[in-house]
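In the design runs reported in the main text, the only information available to the sequence generator was the tokenized backbone. The following block is the verbatim input for one such run; it is reproduced so that readers can re-run the procedure and compare outputs position by position.
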């Protein structure tokens, strides 16, 4: 969008928050860059120039505005809507791959040369992978400086900087303040975060309907790994440098997030996973505008706009849970997963909470779990095949995966029919166009709304909903009375009776 100068000017002059994260406004006279909704008086048109990323603006010598904090704006929805090289690279950079593995590691995961990745990112975003990772480190450093009492040296290394000098230079360059001045600007008397804990706000584009988002996560919560407690969804996180826990609380203009981490180096990745889990970088106005063109969906969208797709914090974990949930109810799937966690999960500490374990990794499960589970032999074989593919590297379900290649690999596994493949594509891969025409909840909703009844006919009708069929599925599911559609109002919503309207049909049903 940054190349459409007139459209960008209109967005800036109207202070339109819908475009926060889509592009950044740089002011040539002040050398400051802002988000489109910055509350200050807009600059003269002649003094405006636009960049596709905060990293590109920083690389061009502009510093972040102290009023609108553009470095903390919602991420561009493009990186969750697309599956090309640049989008996959951006998802991996957000997940901290460059900090952990360098540019060669990023290129290896993408299956391209480092030179090709650099060229593609520079052409579209005006910044290479190192500059993009540096911008992310700067934002992580700012969070730690402003919300904790950590010594600056520890902040530097926790944020991913190789040296304190680089940390100091970057903070001064990006924010026009020293690290000490940044901390001094925080309101006096604000309590610093407890050791290993940090509270922050996760911004999103409005509207956001939390009912199906948090309702789904709470109703399908695996005991010991996830829970709803005190008005917040909580879960454990498997992170590169140690386990963590997160509490996510819906608010009118942000999601309250409290992270407890073993190692601060995982902060950026933990935030990225939380945003992905709640689909916070979506563009709800674009989604709802297209779906409202269908006269059947239009009343559903008008009644509760801004539905998000509940996604996951760990792709392989969800794939295992999807297999466990084949042909059974939501409640039974939770029970199976809970037993798996209790037997093979890694224990974690959660003082005052009910989180007890990390979900077991594929490497742990492949040795012992399939044979010991109380389920049909065919499903044991399906789970064993999935675990082998994950451990051997034949199947990639991480944030930077190729959606169509992952679909093809899943389809080739025994016991993986359309429902399981598309469920994983929707929630683990994050494909916004994944669709479940054989799902019982979708079929019941179609019948009640007068949509085509058979999966094949419904698929043909749903072609008009592309590329947002995963969001259309959320609106269809919302017509039922399943607990996934209700924002929990007690401490144990997952204990509510479950019906089978949002569970699978037997694999092999024709799409």
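Verbatim output:
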């Amino acid at each position: 969008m940054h190349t459409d100068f007139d459209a960008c000017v209109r967005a800036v002059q109207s202070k339109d928050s819908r475009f926060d994260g889509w592009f950044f406004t740089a002011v040539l006279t002040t050398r400051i860059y802002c988000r489109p909704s910055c509350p200050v008086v807009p600059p003269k048109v002649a003094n405006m120039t636009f960049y596709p990323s905060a990293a590109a603006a920083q690389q061009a010598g502009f510093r972040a505005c102290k009023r609108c904090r553009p470095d903390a704006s919602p991420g561009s929805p493009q990186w969750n809507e697309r599956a090309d090289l640049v989008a996959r690279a951006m998802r991996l950079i957000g997940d901290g791959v460059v900090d952990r593995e360098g540019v060669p590691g990023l290129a290896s995961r993408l299956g391209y040369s480092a030179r090709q990745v650099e060229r593609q990112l520079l052409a579209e975003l005006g910044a290479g992978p190192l500059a993009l990772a540096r911008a992310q480190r700067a934002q992580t450093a700012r969070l730690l400086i402003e919300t904790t009492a950590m010594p600056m040296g520890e902040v530097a290394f926790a944020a991913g900087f190789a040296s304190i000098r680089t940390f100091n230079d970057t903070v001064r360059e990006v924010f026009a303040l020293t690290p000490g001045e940044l901390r001094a600007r925080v309101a006096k008397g604000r309590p610093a975060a407890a050791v290993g804990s940090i509270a922050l706000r996760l911004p999103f584009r409005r509207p956001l309907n939390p009912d199906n988002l948090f309702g789904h996560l709470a109703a399908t919560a695996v005991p010991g790994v996830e829970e709803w407690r005190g008005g917040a969804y909580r879960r454990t996180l498997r992170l590169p440098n140690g386990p963590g826990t997160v509490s996510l609380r819906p608010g009118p203009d942000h999601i309250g997030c409290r992270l407890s981490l073993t190692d601060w180096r995982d902060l950026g990745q933990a935030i990225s996973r939380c945003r992905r889990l709640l689909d916070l970088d979506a563009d709800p106005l674009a989604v709802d505008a297209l779906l409202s063109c269908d006269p059947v969906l239009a009343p559903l969208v008008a009644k509760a706009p801004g539905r998000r797709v509940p996604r996951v914090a760990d792709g392989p974990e969800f794939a295992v849970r999807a297999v466990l949930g084949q042909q059974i109810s939501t409640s039974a799937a939770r029970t199976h997963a809970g037993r798996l966690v209790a037997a093979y999960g890694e224990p974690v500490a959660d003082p005052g909470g009910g989180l007890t374990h990390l979900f077991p990794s594929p490497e742990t499960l492949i040795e012992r779990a399939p044979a010991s589970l109380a389920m049909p032999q065919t499903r044991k074989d399906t789970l064993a095949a999935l675990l082998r593919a994950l451990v051997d590297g034949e199947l990639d379900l991480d944030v930077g995966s190729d959606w169509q290649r992952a679909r093809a690999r899943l389809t080739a596994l025994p016991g993986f029919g359309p429902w399981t493949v598309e469920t994983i594509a929707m929630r683990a891969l994050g494909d916004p166009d994944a669709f479940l025409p054989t799902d019982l909840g979708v079929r019941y909703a179609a019948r009640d709304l007068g949509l085509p009844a058979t999966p094949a006919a419904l698929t043909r009708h749903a072609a008009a909903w592309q590329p947002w069929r995963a969001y259309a599925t959320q609106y269809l599911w919302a017509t039922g009375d399943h607990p996934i559609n209700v924002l929990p109002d007690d401490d144990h919503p997952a204990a509510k009776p479950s019906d089978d309207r949002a569970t699978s049909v037997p694999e092999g049903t024709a799409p």
